[in-house]
Amino acid sequence: MAGARFQIFTRRYGRVEWRLVGANNWVLGRSGTSYPTAGDALLGVARLKLELDAAPDEMFVDRAGGWRWELRIDDDILAVGHRVFRGRGECRGMLARFREVAAVAPVDAEPRVFR
After folding, report:
1. What is the DSSP string of 2-70?
2. Among 1-10, 31-40, 105-114, where is mean pLDDT lowest?
3. Cα angle at 9 between 52 and 86, to 5 degrees?
4. Given this model, what pLDDT does residue 115 score?
5. What's the predicted TM-score (pTM) here?
6. HEC profile for 52-70?
7. Range 12-35 average pLDDT
């Protein structure tokens, strides 16, 4: 998908995460954990891409009644949905879109800082 990309970014307290944004800059998903360095976050993206096909779809209803998705390998959360979805179909559709885009998306060269 042209224009889609992984972004590495730092939040408060120096922890680093990644997110996958589509060509329209909408967030499709994000890291399931934070990392100590940008290099570690890049390794997290590489692992996601490597294990994307092996990670089963996990969808669930949260305490507030919204649908969420995760991709896990054993106890490691590789990726999570960026928001809560109204229904199972919407959640499943976004997870499928995430998988499709994540498989081919490049990583932005410059880490960003978000507050």
Report:
1. TT-EEEEEE-GGG-EEEEEE-TTS-EEEEESS-BSSHHHHHHHHHHHHHHTTTSPEEEEE-TTS-EEEE
2. 105-114
3. 60
4. 55
5. 0.89
6. CCCCCEEEEECCCCCEEEE
7. 90
